[in-house]
């Protein structure tokens, strides 16, 4: 079933409900006029643990790539001990093909800020850092401005309407990245926040226990936190009436794919862009309906369906349902960021794999040998094959290298190398 | 690539009397930025950005000044600075052109763009023109895939580029 009305994109004109051309940034006043900050007022009147319970009951899963249930993550926090507790909002968005968080940041920054404030209250986190990738210059200015508006209107700072959170006045600061894909990985993001190289940490300890500056820290994606706002206003059952439930026969501890999701579609389609629909919508619907089909003369061959790290859907999988079960059903790594690049019939898959290998070899942080060296070798071999100089032995070697690097085979610290090997 | 550091301990640092880390930046950090974090090291990246925004690159002397100011060894600040693609430890052009080369942009024809730019400017990727006006960077996804192929010129994003309109954009710069 298609989504009846836009949820996250309520204030951001998007087909079929509106036109991209009508998008503009909502100021604090615009946002309040559109019923904004009501969920925060509601949250202020609630016990923190009751807010967490609602998010848990809604089974809201992280929208940043890994799909971890947000409510569960929040409940991993240890009890307050008088020290600081942090929230890091992940707006690094460096996964190739992914451009969804920037739409929220550019046009409806106060929706994100409201979600941030609710999370801080629910989890009793006193200080939040909005980690935005370095290349989003225009977005950074907009968001900095929105933060200033939020302070001026008593959302944060001294005498915040939330009162003291974790015994301190709550604060939200913007943190500007400096061009490194790996800083989207949550522990690399924390290292970068601390002023160091973006080197992922070995887990455990998990950030909820010892994160930024060694203190309890929650890290969530921009879209995840934004979704908390409507969930709180309308309740868990409302949220679960959208999207798809658990696969048939699955026990209740198997996470489902409830709710709507942002999908960013790019490549040779007529109207590329960021759309919103229920989880479970097929890739074909996204391309044919939302994007008005392929550019004349181009045919769908395959797609990177969730950023390049999740593998590809082939021609026969055009009707794959875009939900958190996609990995199991179609044998790939998962839904990822749900932002798809469409590959047309006249682009070679070897060229695409070579492009991905170059990306991973360039963006590897260099800590783990299989990732640092392997990525580079994959790139070299794929370049050779693309030039027509490949041998059959190259194929075996490609597979051998690819299958030996990654956190799944257990040879690396973080998931970057898994993305690299799935591309191959 | 983040892990390659070429310079050794024998490096000679060009010095000038006037500090790169200006009094204004110091004041701003002392009053506004330091209170944001539990320690000063966390200000490393914001401080490097502030210095680079002013001088367009990060001379070694600036790294030393930043380290002094933050109470860190210069090597620690240099370690951080060399990790990030946006920090330039060598002078660069007045305009830096960041051309995206990731999947969506490759599919939509970014190779033609790079060829056109290289030809017009007479430089390859990661090089700077002799007159010091342009630096060309081939980079990974800049998060504007809906408008592929795309590029940033300094802080400004340009989408749906072609060999023709990219030429116009360059000609429009002073
Ligand atoms: C290599 C790598 C890059 C990542 N990049 C991002 C990113 O750019 N943005 C993001 O939100 N999550 C990214 N993630 C996922 C984060 O580690 C983390 O799971 C997420 O921010 C948690 O938020 P969520 O639970 O709300 O999705 C990345 C993970 C890996 C392994
Ligand atoms: S897998 Fe790669 S990116 Fe991740 S920590 Fe290891 S070297 Fe760094």
Q: What would you say this structure looks like, in words?
A:
- The complex is a heterodimer of chains A (424) and B (174).
- Chain A has 3 domains: 224 residues, Rossmann fold (3-Layer(aba) Sandwich); 83 residues, Ubiquitin-like (UB roll) (Roll); 75 residues, NADH-ubiquinone oxidoreductase 51kDa subunit, iron-sulphur binding domain (de novo design (two linked rop proteins), Up-down Bundle).
- Helices cover 38% and strands 12% of the residues of chain A.
- Chain A has 16 helices and 11 strands.
- In chain A, the strands form 3 sheets. In chain A, strands 8-7-11-9-10 form a 5-stranded mixed sheet, covered by helices on one side. Chain A has a 4-stranded parallel sheet with strand order 3-2-1-4, sandwiched between helices.
- In chain A, helix 6 crosses helix 9.
- Chain B is an alpha+beta fold.
- Chain B folds into 2 domains: 68 residues, NADH-quinone oxidoreductase subunit E (Arc Repressor Mutant, subunit A, Orthogonal Bundle); 77 residues, Glutaredoxin (3-Layer(aba) Sandwich), CATH 3.40.30.
- Chain B has 7 helices and 5 strands; from the N terminus they run ααααβααββββα.
- The mean pLDDT of chain B is 92.
- Chains A and B meet through strand 3, strand 7, strand 11 and helix 13 of A and helix 2, helix 4 and helix 5 of B.
- The site of iron/sulfur cluster (SF4) has 14 residues of chain A, from helix 14 and helix 16.
Chart the SSEs and their pairings.
The complex is a heterodimer of chains A (424) and B (174).
Chain A: H1 28-33, H2 38-44, H3 48-58, H4 70-75, E1 86-91, H5 101-107, H6 109-123, E2 127-132, H7 137-152, E3 171-176, H8 186-193, E4 217-221, H9 222-234, H10 236-240, E5 243-244, E6 257-258, E7 260-266, E8 273-278, H11 283-290, E9 300-304, E10 312-313, H12 326-330, E11 339-344, H13 349-363, H14 369-386, H15 392-404, H16 416-423
Parallel strand pairs in A: 1-2, 1-4, 2-3, 7-11
Antiparallel strand pairs in A: 5-6, 7-8, 9-10, 9-11
Chain B: H1 23-33, H2 44-55, H3 60-70, H4 74-83, E1 95-100, H5 103-107, H6 110-121, E2 127-128, E3 134-139, E4 151-153, E5 156-158, H7 163-171
Parallel strand pairs in B: 1-3
Antiparallel strand pairs in B: 1-4, 2-3, 4-5
Helix pairs in contact in B: 2-3, 3-4
Iron/sulfur cluster is lined by residues 182, 200, 364-368, 371-372, 412-414, 416-417 of chain A.
């Amino acid at each position: 079933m298609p989504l009846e009305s836009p949820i996250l994109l309520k204030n951001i004109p998007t087909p079929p409900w509106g036109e991209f051309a009508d998008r503009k940034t909502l100021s604090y006043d615009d946002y309040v006029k559109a019923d904004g900050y009501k969920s925060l007022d509601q949250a202020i009147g609630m016990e923190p643990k009751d807010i967490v319970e609602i998010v848990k009951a809604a089974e809201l899963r992280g929208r940043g790539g890994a799909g971890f249930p947000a409510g569960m993550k929040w409940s991993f926090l240890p009890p307050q001990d008088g020290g600081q507790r942090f929230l890091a909002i992940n707006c690094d968005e460096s996964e190739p093909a992914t451009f969804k968080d920037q739409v929220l940041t550019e046009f409806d920054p106060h929706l994100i800020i409201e979600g941030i404030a609710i999370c801080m209250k629910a989890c009793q986190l006193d200080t939040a850092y909005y980690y935005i990738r370095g290349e989003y210059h225009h977005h950074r200015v907009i968001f900095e401005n929105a933060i200033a508006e939020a302070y001026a209107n008593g959302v944060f700072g001294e005498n915040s309407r939330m009162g003291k959170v974790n015994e301190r006045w709550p604060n939200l600061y913007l943190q500007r990245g400096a061009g490194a894909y790996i800083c989207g990985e949550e522990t690399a993001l924390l290292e970068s926040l601390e002023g160091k190289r973006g080197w992922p940490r070995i887990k455990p300890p998990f950030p909820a226990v010892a994160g930024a500056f060694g203190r309890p820290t929650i890290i969530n994606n921009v879209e995840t936190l934004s979704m908390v706002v409507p969930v709180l206003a309308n309740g868990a059952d409302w949220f679960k009436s959208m999207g798809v439930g658990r696969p048939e026969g699955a026990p209740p501890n198997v996470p489902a794919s409830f709710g709507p999701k942002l999908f960013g579609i790019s490549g040779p389609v007529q109207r590329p862009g960021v759309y919103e629909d229920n989880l479970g919508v097929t890739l074909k619907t996204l391309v044919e309906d939302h994007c008005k089909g392929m550019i004349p003369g181009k045919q769908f061959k395959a797609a990177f369906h969730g950023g390049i790290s999740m593998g590809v859907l082939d021609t026969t999988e055009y009707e794959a349902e875009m939900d958190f079960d996609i990995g199991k059903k179609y044998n790939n790594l998962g839904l990822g960021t749900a932002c798809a690049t469409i590959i047309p019939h006249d682009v070679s898959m070897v060229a695409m794999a070579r492009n991905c290998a170059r990306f991973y070899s360039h963006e590897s942080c260099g800590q783990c040998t299989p990732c640092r060296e392997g990525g580079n070798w994959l790139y070299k071999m794929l370049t050779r094959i693309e030039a027509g100089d490949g041998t059959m032995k190259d194929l075996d070697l490609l597979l051998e290298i690819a299958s030996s690097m990654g956190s799944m085979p257990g040879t690396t610290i973080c998931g970057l190398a898994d993305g690299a090997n799935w591309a191959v | 690539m983040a892990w390659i550091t070429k310079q050794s301990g024998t490096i000679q640092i060009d010095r000038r009397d006037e500090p790169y880390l200006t009094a204004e930046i110091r004041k701003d950090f002392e009053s506004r930025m330091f209170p944001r974090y539990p320690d000063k090291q966390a200000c490393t990246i914001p401080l490097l950005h502030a210095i680079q925004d002013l001088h367009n690159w990060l001379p070694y002397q600036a790294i030393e000044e930043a380290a002094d100011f933050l109470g860190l060894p210069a090597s620690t600040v240099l370690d951080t600075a060399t990790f990030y693609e946006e920090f330039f430890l060598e002078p660069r052009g007045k305009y830096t052109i960041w051309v995206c080369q990731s999947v969506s942009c490759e599919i939509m024809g970014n190779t033609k763009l790079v060829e056109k730019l290289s030809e017009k400017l007479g430089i390859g990727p990661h090089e700077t023109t002799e007159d010091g006006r342009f630096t060309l960077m081939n980079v990974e996804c800049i998060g504007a895939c809906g408008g592929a192929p795309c590029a940033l010129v300094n802080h400004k994003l340009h989408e749906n580029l072609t060999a023709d309109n990219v030429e116009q954009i360059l000609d429009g710069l002073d």
